[in-house]
Amino acid sequence: MTISIGDRVPDGTLTEFIENAEDGQSAGPQAFKVSELVKGKKIVLFAVPGAFTPTCTNKHVVDFIRDAEQIKAKGVDEIWCVAVNDAFVMGAWGRDTGATGIIRLLADGAAIWTTALGLEMDLIARGLGIRSRRYSAILEDGVVTQLNVEEGGEYKISGTQTILSQL
């Protein structure tokens, strides 16, 4: 079953590559409980099929980097990008795109959280395994208040223009 507006996101673990040890946080891959990350926060979340893939890299993440200040000015605490990749890949993608420090790049390496959301897609036949569908959402204290799920390989409704109009 796919998550819907009004639902609380399931708990799970997402991993983030931390570039520098600070505030008691070690550098390298660090696991975080979703329930703790969302508590009391307004979060804009977007998910992509994969780091370093063309649309994800050249359009989706670029748009969120470009519009991050406008999004945060509307009361958003954090912007997340979730992909079914490992934390090392997400960290490298953040460095490569300039997203590090602007967007939290969160890895769902085995697609466990993505599957719990009901937003996985099977790309095994194309050599990509189980991946996330492309979507964006607004979460308030862990509850989905907006959800924009793309069809197929499209990038029409999950970008920053839609999110900015919904905030």
TrEMBL record:
Natural source organism: Advenella mimigardefordensis (strain DSM 17166 / LMG 22922 / DPN7)
Top-level taxonomy: Bacteria, Pseudomonadati, Pseudomonadota, Betaproteobacteria, Burkholderiales
Domain of life (superkingdom): Bacteria
Active-site residues, as the UniProt record annotates them: 56
Keyword terms of this UniProt record: Antioxidant, Oxidoreductase, Peroxidase, Redox-active center
Domain Thioredoxin per the UniProt entry, residue ranges: 3-167
Protein name in the entry: Glutathione-dependent peroxiredoxin
Enzyme Commission code(s) on record: 1.11.1.27
A single GO cellular-component term on record: cytoplasm
